[in-house]
């Protein structure tokens, strides 16, 4: 039965909960049956109040191996369509629960055997001083996770379960960090008193009862055949005399009302509070649902993407579906597509790992056929004779110059006291020139550039990257190649970027520092890069980008803390720059002027800012959202964009949204030599000479 949404009980009717102890749930010393009927107790060694390891245990081996596995969450989520949750234990989409992860902490009164999983539902928790998850607010059916679990149970949607090797309920040695178990049905969802809060629990039952689970103990007996099982034995249930709702009997100590809104919630037969130590009732654990051939999963437990890809697909390399992960057909590992050319099971070219073990040799290379520029640009004419421009009044309108850098149209966006963005708009004459952007787009697809994806902290950066020149700290750790190894298209692009950087320096009257590093990003179908900045201390003030292929939209906005005057943790800035366009600009400018003139001291200045923050909270006008973009640019094939000014990267951030198709972005920067080692200096040495230099035509 589906539990109703819990309603907080009144103070007079709310039972006083007993403290919950940690450790193993064991048989109580004395039996206190609440009915005349006797029940068989089972002391289950795998039902714990916490899922932490017990030092005295000796883990058993498993009977088999998982049908798929991964050593990190991003690879797991890349390859399994039914578990895409990089963080959190419940994957839900469209109000349906598709996948579940049981790992280190399954919560109090959890259970796991060869066919049944009983665990808590995540959400509303925090970690205490010991690192244990503690429920800090009541759970109910309104949360997205709980709502999806209830929907999957009601609609009979099977749920795939993954077990992590930090889970200690099983007491067996698991072969990998994350191991795919099987498809399960949700049989029961209910609420319990956990400490002083109401927490949700869920019982899963394995769908395929006819085969032995791979995670079963080695040499353990085979499961009963389906036709020999007693499906008539089901969990007991009774109706509560106070709320008139049915609840299933979960624990051996007696039946309890499991409706949180009821005054008898979590009391044994409505008379006494539940004890701290509880044992699962035999019928609740051993009951099984009869097989129903109409209940089938939406996805394959282990998808076979490779069998659906045809080598004849000329543009398969850039399609969205091909930047998904696959399951290695040899070792069953979940593999992200880390390389531009396809998938490789091993992380590098080495044939052995650090322990001397042989690495899996599997790799799958996609057909690399250059995609014609025609198929990434929708306009009837791929490049205009002269691009006509218009601007949305909601954004900054640039200064237009059609003369100084002809044949480019020069658009300049200036943010006073911060910096500027120069957008050089290309046209047909520029793009179709010998070795121009049209040719560069084709050549980059044919070269072995070494493009690959690099891991972030909790995900995999979707864009394919290559660095040439001097190294520096980027969002991800990216290996750098020397310009001596660069292919002709890279050097020609570097010539264009160096020329564009020089024009921006000349316009600003700054000393020109030629770029000594290039970052190449390849965007496949539907890839994008979110808001970020290039404000590392090791970078010079100018950053230039050449765009090739599909058009993209570039948005620029003020960073959160400078827009609001405080951090996301609501901590006031030590130095508030009070930039035009920031929130409450006039009031903040007035206060800053008072501080600078000496009419108010620092203590008074901070106090007035805090009062302003508190008044906005009370009035409901605090508005903790992000700043609205102030600059919007449509960047087309062959265009150059140059951002100048350290303040631009310090106070603002930008995002790039390509038009769903293949695009290359080549970005050149100046890395300050004092921030790199002597051995890396040589990588950034570049003499373009006449062959690679660009004349602006």
UniProtKB/TrEMBL annotation:
User: What are the Polar residues biased-composition ranges?
Assistant: 10-23
What InterPro entries would the database entry show? Answer: AlkB-like, AlkB-like_sf, ALKBH2
Q: Which GO terms describe its biological process?
A: DNA alkylation repair
- So which domain of life are we looking at? Eukaryota
Q: Which GO terms describe its molecular function?
A: broad specificity oxidative DNA demethylase activity; cytosine C-5 DNA demethylase activity; ferrous iron binding
Q: Which residues form a coiled coil?
A: none
| Region (Disordered) residue spans | 1-71
Composition bias, Low complexity: 34-43
Q: Which residues form the Alpha-ketoglutarate-dependent dioxygenase AlkB-like domain?
A: 429-686
What is the protein name for this chain?
Alpha-ketoglutarate-dependent dioxygenase AlkB-like domain-containing protein
What is the native source organism of this protein?
A: Aspergillus kawachii
């Amino acid at each position: 039965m589906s539990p109703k949404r819990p309603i907080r009980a009144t103070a007079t009717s709310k039972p006083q909960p007993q403290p919950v102890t940690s450790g193993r749930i064991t048989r109580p010393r004395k039996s206190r049956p609440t009915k005349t009927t006797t029940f068989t107790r089972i002391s289950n060694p795998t039902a714990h109040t916490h899922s932490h390891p017990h030092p005295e245990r000796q883990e058993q081996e498993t009977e088999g191996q998982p049908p798929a596995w991964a050593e990190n969450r991003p690879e797991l989520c890349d390859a399994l369509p039914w578990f895409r949750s990089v963080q959190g234990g419940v994957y839900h989409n469209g109000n349906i629960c598709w996948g579940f992860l049981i790992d280190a902490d399954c919560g109090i009164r959890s259970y796991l055997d060869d066919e049944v999983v009983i665990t808590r539902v995540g959400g509303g928790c925090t970690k205490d001083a010991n690192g244990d998850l503690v429920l800090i607010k009541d759970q109910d059916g309104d949360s997205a996770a709980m709502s999806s679990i209830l929907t999957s149970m009601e609609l009979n949607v099977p749920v795939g379960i993954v077990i992590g090797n930090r889970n200690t309920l099983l007491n067996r040695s698991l072969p990998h960090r994350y191991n795919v178990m099987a498809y399960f049905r949700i049989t029961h969802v209910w609420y319990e008193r956990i400490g002083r809060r109401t927490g949700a629990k869920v019982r899963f039952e394995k769908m395929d009862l006819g085969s032995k689970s791979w995670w079963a103990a080695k040499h353990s007996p085979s499961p009963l055949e389906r036709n020999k099982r007693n499906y008539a034995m089901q969990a007991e249930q009774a109706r509560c005399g106070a709320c008139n709702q049915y609840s299933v009997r979960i624990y051996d100590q007696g039946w309890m009302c499991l409706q949180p809104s009821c005054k008898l919630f979590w009391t044994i037969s409505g008379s006494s509070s539940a004890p701290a130590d509880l044992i699962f009732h035999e019928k609740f654990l051993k009951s099984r649902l009869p097989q129903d051939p109409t209940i089938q999963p939406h996805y394959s437990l282990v998808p076979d993407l490779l069998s659906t890809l045809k080598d004849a697909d000329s543009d398969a390399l850039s399609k969205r579906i091909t930047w998904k992960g696959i399951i290695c057909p040899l070792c069953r590992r979940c593999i992200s597509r880390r390389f531009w050319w396809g998938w490789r099971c091993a992380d590098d070219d080495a044939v052995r790992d650090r322990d001397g073990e042989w690495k899996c040799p599997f790799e799958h290379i996609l057909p690399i056929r250059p995609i014609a520029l025609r198929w990434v640009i929708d306009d009837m004419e791929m490049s205009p004779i002269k691009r006509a421009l218009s601007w949305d009044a909601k954004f900054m309108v640039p200064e237009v110059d059609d003369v100084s850098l002809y044949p480019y149209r020069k658009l300049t966006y200036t943010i006073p006291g911060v910096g500027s963005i120069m957008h050089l708009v290309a046209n047909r004459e520029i793009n179709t020139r010998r070795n121009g952007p049209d040719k560069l787009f084709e050549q980059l697809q044919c070269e072995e550039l070494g493009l690959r994806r690099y891991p972030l902290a909790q995900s995999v950066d979707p864009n394919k990257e290559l660095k040439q020149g001097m190294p520096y700290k980027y969002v991800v750790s990216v290996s750098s190649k020397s310009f001596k190894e660069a292919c002709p298209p890279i050097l020609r692009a570097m010539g264009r970027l160096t020329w564009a950087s020089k024009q921006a320096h000349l316009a600003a009257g700054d000393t020109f520092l030629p770029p000594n590093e290039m970052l190449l990003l390849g965007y496949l179908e539907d890839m994008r890069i979110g808001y970020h900045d290039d404000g590392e201390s090791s970078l010079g003030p100018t950053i230039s980008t050449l765009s090739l292929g599909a058009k993209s939209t570039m948005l620029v906005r003020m960073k959160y803390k400078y827009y609001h005057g405080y951090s996301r943790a609501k901590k006031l800035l030590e130095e508030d720059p009070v930039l035009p366009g920031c929130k409450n600009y006039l009031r903040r400018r007035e206060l800053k002027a008072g501080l600078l003139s000496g009419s108010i001291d620092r203590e008074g200045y901070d106090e007035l800012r805090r009062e302003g923050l508190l008044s906005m909270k009370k009035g409901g006008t605090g508005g903790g959202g992000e700043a609205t973009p102030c600059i919007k640019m449509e960047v087309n094939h062959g265009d150059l964009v140059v951002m100048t000014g350290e303040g631009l990267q310090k106070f603002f951030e930008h995002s790039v949204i390509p038009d769903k198709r293949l695009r290359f972005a080549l970005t050149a920067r100046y890395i300050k030599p004092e921030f790199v080692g002597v051995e890396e200096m040589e990588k950034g040495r570049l003499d373009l000479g006449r062959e690679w230099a660009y004349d602006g035509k």
